[in-house]
Amino acid sequence: MTGGSRPLGFSWPVLVGLAALAAPRVVLHDLDLVQEGSPVNALLVFGPPICWLAVVLWRRPPRPFLTMVVIGAIYGLFLAAGHQLLWTGAYDGNGPALGGNLADVDPTVQEVVLRAVAVLSSLATGIIVGILTGAVAAVLCRVLPEHGAPSRHGGP
Question: Which keywords has UniProt assigned to this entry (predicted)?
Answer without folding.
Answer: Membrane, Transmembrane, Transmembrane helix
